Amino acid sequence: MKKVIISLVLALVSVAGYAQSVIGKWVTEGGESQVEIYQSGDKLNGKIVWLKAGDGKLDSKNPDKNLQSRKLVGTNILTGLTKKKDKWEGGKIYNPKNGKTYKCSIWLDGNELKVRGYLAMFYETQTWTRK
Prior knowledge:
The protein is mainly beta and 131 residues long. It is 14% helix and 50% strand. The protein has one helix and eight strands. An eight-stranded antiparallel beta barrel has the order 1-2-3-4-5-6-7-8. The radius of gyration is 17 Å and the shape is globular.
């Protein structure tokens, strides 16, 4: 009986750990896009996989003229996030609406993903929902 209880507890813990992962597809605040967060080595990145505006939308606000003709779908907007306690920090987030890149951290808050971009001491936090 003791082995059955231990096995059950271990199974529940592993399921709970999986449910708490930030990896997967997320709908951005406002529902304008979906971002797939994935792990690459010990870092997290996230790329746009769907846009309400359509697959053909270009990165026209990018400050690099050579990138202004690339499609936004498939573009990494989250890069280099590293796990620190309950957050992923130290990365960057690119905002294709204004072509700027900010320092970034992300964390789970229940079933929602909090995404915070920093500019000096100022920040903005968005809430993304799992797809």
